[in-house]
Amino acid sequence: MLAHLDGTPVGLLQRCRxxxxxxxxxxxxxxxxxxxxAMTMDYLIxxxxxxxxxxxxxxIRSALQAIWDEHPDAPCxxxxxxxxxxASWRALEKAGMVRVAEGxxxxxxxxxxxxxxxxxxxxx
Length: 124
Fold this sequence. Notes:
Layout: E1 2-5, E2 8-17, H1 22-28, E3 39-45, H2 55-70, E4 76-82, H3 86-94, E5 98-104, E6 115-122
């Protein structure tokens, strides 16, 4: 999904069922129990100067609402994030997600370390 601000694309977000990626599911399950139907998401803001302006939490809240609306079987959303990426995990917190675990996971970006936080929000 693309996020727009005043008609201009500013971010990208994708979501999926964890079960659709069995190897990833197994890795996340080393940190917490993963309920059947759990979903996850990835997101980014394209321009660094837009970080810290509240766009990330708005994108995440919007995506969560879409998950609840479009995936009635999803009991929760679990999002691993690099512990070093403070802006990202703060955006998750501002969007209402709660840190439920921390541990080592394979990083999406090779420059990031293996230390990750895992955030969760349950269906309202």
